[in-house]
Amino acid sequence: MRAAVLSKANQVEIREFPEPSKTQDNEVIAKVEFVGVCKTDQQLTAAGLDKDCILGHEVVCSLPNQKGHFALNNEISCGKCSYCLEGLTSHCLNLQELGVNEHGGYAEQICAPRNSLHPFEFSNPTLGVLIEPLSCAVRGVKRIIAGVNLLATSHPKVLVIGGGISGTLITYLLNHSPNFKGEIKVYDITKEPLPWLNKLGIERIQVPEPNQAHVVVECSGSPGGLATALDLVRKGGLVCIYGVPKPGISLPISPHELFMREIAVVTSFAGATDETIAAAIASIKGDEAFFEQLLGRFIPLEKLPIELTNWSPQPGTRTVVDLDA
Ligand SMILES: [Zn+2]
Ligand SMILES: [Zn+2]
Predict the structure, then answer these.
(1) CA angle at residue 278 from 72 to 273, to 5 degrees?
(2) GO molecular function, one example (predicted)?
């Protein structure tokens, strides 16, 4: 089959690759239809891996002799370790991540446990590539709302830093959560228009000021974004690190200052569970028109190596690999 294979840093090759075969009874071979190109793919590509690996974890696929489309939960957990028993499957001690450290979706076929494939019915099945990132945001918002309980106010002012896909999904869910009562604003360092903000009726801040936001959600994953978040948040406030910080970067604040300003820091690394996937599917199904705006360019598999090495998605959108193109 055709596959995009990552070997050394910045070397993604389109080549013939052996078709996957089942090694366990619970596995199925699915036909890949669409895959979202995530910044994680770009970071893995830049770093390289010590073995050949097919990336791609935001996967929509179909199954032989079955109608409809399925979204992959790429985190394959053991179900037995102490983390799995607490439902923290993303922290499973035996975690396999398809498209990260095991073969994923940038290929004509993928082998995955049957129960990791979640059926969904959207009028536009391509929207299925957003199920995995949205399900991570479902968890992020749950942790932000839990953190709001630490604040002195129950109607916090929230500033989301970063108007990319992560910031968009967090903002959307927070804005639609029945458990959140507050005000949301978005700050993005670029001058790019963010049309989805208007649809949500959310204000974009041009110059953020300190001592305004009770909660700052850092969604850009940039060192500057993290420094800005810690700089801006009110005393007694909450910073959520949602964008993935690059390895090797220190927290740009001293423990003394963190203590004196009484800042709580919450992170949200963990990804998809059955519960968050179900919530993500329900959100998209209820508002397909909103999520359609987040679909960017469609590219054939052959264009993926360039996409991964010259990261340039249309701002605030997902580039999608169409395996049938
Ligand atoms: Zn991703
Ligand atoms: Zn486990």
Answers:
(1) 60
(2) oxidoreductase activity
